[in-house]
Structure prediction request, 167 residues.
Amino acid sequence: MSEFPHLKNDSSLELNRDVSIPECSDILVASREFDRLRRDRLTDGVRDGIAEGQEKALQGGFQDGFKHVVELACEISKLKAQLSTLQSLRRNSVTLSQAEELDGLQRDLDDLLYKLQDSIGTPKVEGQEEGCRGDGDGDAAASDVRGELRRLEERVSAIIAQIYASG
Prediction:
């Protein structure tokens, strides 16, 4: 018995004599071309999916980081505004050491703003060697800025209390 029982005998298989060799060759070429195009489209789809996923993740990280930095910058700016107001309103009633302390706090807050700016990096400027300014570890730098901001807030509260206690 034959290995292929559904085929009764070899004579039942007839070649289609109407199909020429060039036509078979064209079908084979078209089939290969179709497979190649399908593979290419699949590869393109995977690449597009990866790129889109990376872009969404990058955008989400940017938005989170931007929100965090803006919050810190606003806190620093509010503290600077409080100090400026205090300096203006109490100009004649502060001692020399208190005035120096207020000036020092303003400088420290300015430095803190610059540190925050450095932590996020800035676009490359012609002549700079690196692609962005900053330490590359924005989370750690922002955490340092937050800690330093808390210490400055305590100093500001202390000097305000001291000025109002003596005035």
Q: What stands out?
A: Residues 17-166 form one domain.
